[in-house]
Amino acid sequence: MQILSIRVVPKASRNFIKEENGSLKAYLTKPAQNNLANKQLVELLAEYLGVKKYQIKILQGEKSRDKVVEINAL
Fold this sequence. Notes:
Shape: globular
């Protein structure tokens, strides 16, 4: 199990993740409405980290740009 701090930037021009000062910054094309950005964040993190989507859980910050995410990889 791993805990990550992630800063989310919704409505970006493209999807990508950048490492910055020991934490991750995720740029997402979806807006922060109707949980769309959170769903896209889970998909992007799964691809970036090479894990399944069900192994990623947002612990804190569902309605904030600063999120704490738990990764359950074996």
